[in-house]
Structure formats: structure tokens, C-alpha cells
Amino acid sequence: MLESAWGWLIVSYLFLAGAGAGAFIAAVACDLLAPDWSKALARGGSLVAGPLVAVGTACLVFDLEAGLWQPWRQFYLISNLNSMITWGVIVLSLFIPVALLYAAALNEITFVGRIAKKYLRPLEYVGSALAIGTAVYTGILIAVVNGVPFWNTPLMPVLFLASAISTGLAAAMIAAAVIDINTIRTLSNFALGHVIFLSVEGVVLMLLVFMSLTGSVDAAESATMLISGRLSPYFWILVVTLGILVPFVLSIVEYYEYGAMPKHLVVGADLLVLLGGMSLRALIIYSAAPPQIV
Amino acid sequence: MEEQKDKPQEREALTPTVEGEAEPAPVAEKAAEAAPEGPEDAHPVKENALAEKRGRAVVAGAVSVVIISVIALLVAAIFQLTSRWLVVCPTDLPVNDPAPILWKSMVSESVQPQPLGVPEKLTGEVGYKQR
Questions:
Q1: In chain B, what are the domain boundaries?
Q2: Count of pairs with CB atoms under 8 A, one residue in A, one in B
Q3: What mean pLDDT is predicted for residues A176-190?
Q4: Three-state SS for A287?
């Protein structure tokens, strides 16, 4: 059985918050760089960003049982500015309303959206900074845990940022396909984004594993658990093959075939990226080996 | 080279129009035909069509969030269900454990000459395991 001090609620938070932040970045990138032909993706990304991070943050709050039963104690979360967690709480608390406001502005939802549309550019710039902060914070949250040498590395936030952008792009593409399946042909333009960010994710993951293997005994134990230990079937099948290699190849084909690829394969590639992203976070949490006391 | 040059143009040509921008909605067209008196009558129909589109977009966003959350649940279910089948390779099999043999020789009344190195029986068992 899988054992860890941190459970599925934390894994879900890491995944949903990362995907939400990535979807926001994808939406802003589309709106700024290609506003003419990527409106559906920008709209899709903006609509899922805020709710995904909100659901993820709810998972985090449910995991903090004291905070769940005595919510007023959560005020203390922002009382220590020397703590990374305090800054994470501030970033999350600011990002969710900004992302919801951006979705309202871009889609002109209610009078709030019509007012916010006047401040679309400032919302995009502020929201992007907060989205990067949210994505990086998912990695920092576990990188600051000194008790687990495998997590305690500066590569962790980089890996989580790359994975967040990759899963966020997939989430935005799925939302765009749900809004209007006919826009799926334009999504081929964004397959290149998948190719780039899946490559970065793969390289950083490889670096993390190799650095852990040559690092401390405990970090090496965690890395061994992933590549040849009891978690290796999940690592090689769910993360490496289904989560990185298959969508990588499909994205290359999608980019060069441009619009000729069957719709179910385009959406399937995005679903696999999300499956791999969630599995990656689960494996990182469940492969944690505490330092041995000699 | 020719093909490469043509590709961006082809992409632009293939790019479908974004909803509600270039092509007027069929509902709005019909309304304009049916009520040619003035723009005042057509305006509410267009508003409704836009509101409907926005409503659809919001519902689509909610559906997408549900889909992504279901993926998270699915992965958790895969891990929880299949982790029961994982068999940890045992590292403490009796064949590797020289303690009983050493203990027997230590408590034995008769002192027997001990060959240097690993006992022959244990060597055989280890050799059998390695095969």
C-alpha cells in the first residue's frame, strides 16, 4: 500500500493549482500573442483557471484539519512573513479573485466583467505574475521540507512550473474544445507549446532523478523507488510513457499535420498530459523517504 | 520550399472564425429579416444570443473543471487499487540468513573444526538462489 505523511488532498492541490495557474498563463499568452485566432483557447483557459485553483486550495484547506474545523485559525497563516507558506497563502488568496475577474472580463460576464474589461491588460500582467507564483509555490511547498532529501532540491519548483504550464495548456485546450469542438483545428498551433514544455518537463525530471541517485542515501532511495522500485510501474507507464512520450509524439504529428489529425487524438493527447501531471505529483509525494537516523 | 512558404497562409486560411465575430449568428440573422422596422427590435434578440453564448461558455468552463477533477480522482483510484497488487521483493529470506547456522555452531557442545569462509551448505543455498 502507498504510505506518506501527505495524502491525496495535497496531491490534488498540487495538480489542480498547477493546472489552473498554467491555464491562466496559456490564456494570457494567447490573448497577447495571437488574439485573432486563439480567442477560444484564451476564453477556455480563463474560465478554468480560477475555479481549478479554488478547488485545489479547498483540498489544501481540507487537509489542514485544524483549519477546517476552526477556520478562524487560518488567519495565523499570514502572520509570519518569514515563512514561505505565508507567501504562498497570500499569492493564492490574490490569484483566485484576479483569475475569476479576468474570466469575467474576457468573456464579458455580468456587469463586473464589462467594468473589468477596461482593465484587461493590468489584469493580465498582475494575474500572470501571480500565476507564476502559484505554479512555483506548488513546488516550493514541498521543496522546503528539509525532512525529505528527495524533495529538498531547487529543481522541484522548476519541475512543477514546467509541469504546470504543460498541464495548464492541456486544461485550456480541453476547455476550448468543450466550448466549441470546431476550434480543435486551431489548437494545432498550440501543439508546439506542448512539445516545448513536455521536453522541459522531461529534462528536469531526468535531472532530478539522476541528481538524487548521486546525492544522499535517502534521496537515492526515493529515486530508486521510482525508476526500479515498487513505484516504477507507475513512473514508467503513467508518467514517462503516457504522460510525456505519447503526448509529445502526438503533438509533433498534430503540429505538422495541422488540423488533419482526428479530434479524439488531439483531445486524447491533452487528457494524457493531465493524467501524467497528476501521476507525477502523486509519485513525488509517495516516493518520499525520510532521512535515516544513524 | 514552396510548401513551407505556403504553410502560414494555409494555416490562416484553415483557422476557423471565432464565435460571434465575423459571421453573424443565425438567430440574429432571422430576427433581422423578420423585423426590418428598426434596430431597436433586433437589439434584444442579439443581446439574448450573446448572453446565451456567454452562459454556454461558463457552463463549458464548469464542465472542463469537472473533467479535470475527475482525472485527478481517476489517478488516485488507479494508484489506490493497483498498489495492492505490488509485491515487494523480500530481502530477508532464510537462505540469506547465516544466523541460525552460526548460532548452532556457537552453542554446540562438540567443538568442530570450522573451515574458513562461508559454510558449504550456505554456499550451496546461495548458489541455488542465484541460479
A1: 9-63, 94-130
A2: 108
A3: 78
A4: coil
Residue A20 CA to residue B113 CA, distance in Å, equals: 73
Distance linking the first and last C-alpha atoms of chain B: 61
- Residue position matching grid coordinates 473533467: B67
Say how many C-beta atoms besides its own lie within 10 A of residue A137's C-beta.
27
Quickly count: other Cβ atoms within 10 Å of residue A69's Cβ. Answer: 8
pLDDT at A256 (0 to 100): 84
Q: Do A238 and B14 touch (CB under 8 A)?
A: no
Q: Is B56 on the interface with A (CB under 8 A)?
A: yes
Task: Pick the closest to residue A199 from A236, A165, A235 (CA basis).
Answer: A165
Contact check, Cβ <8 Å, B67/A178: yes
Give start and end residues of each alpha helix (H) in A108-154. 110-116, 120-143
User: Rounded to whole angstroms, how far apart are CA atoms B43 and A98?
Assistant: 32
What's the pLDDT tens digit per position in A22-46? 999 999 998 888 777 778 888 889 9
Residue in chain A lying closest to B71 (CA): A275
Give the range among A85-89, A158-162, A178-182, B43-47 with minimum mean pLDDT: B43-47
Give per-residue pLDDT as tens, A191-202.
Answer: 888 899 999 999
Give the residue with greater pLDDT, A70 vs A250: A250
Cβ(A14)–Cβ(A281) below 8 Å: yes
pLDDT in tens, B18-67: 444 444 444 444 444 444 444 444 455 555 666 667 777 888 889 999 99
- What ipTM was assigned to the predicted interfaces of this complex? 0.85
- For chain A, domains (ranges, CATH) are 8-286 (1.20.1630.10)
Residue ranges of E strands in chain B: none
Nearest CA in chain A to B73: A12
Residue B32 CA to residue B108 CA, distance in Å, equals: 108
pLDDT, position B95: 65
Contacts of B68 in chain A (CB under 8 A): 16, 19, 48, 52, 171, 174, 274
Within an 8 Å CB–CB cutoff, is residue A273 touching chain B? no
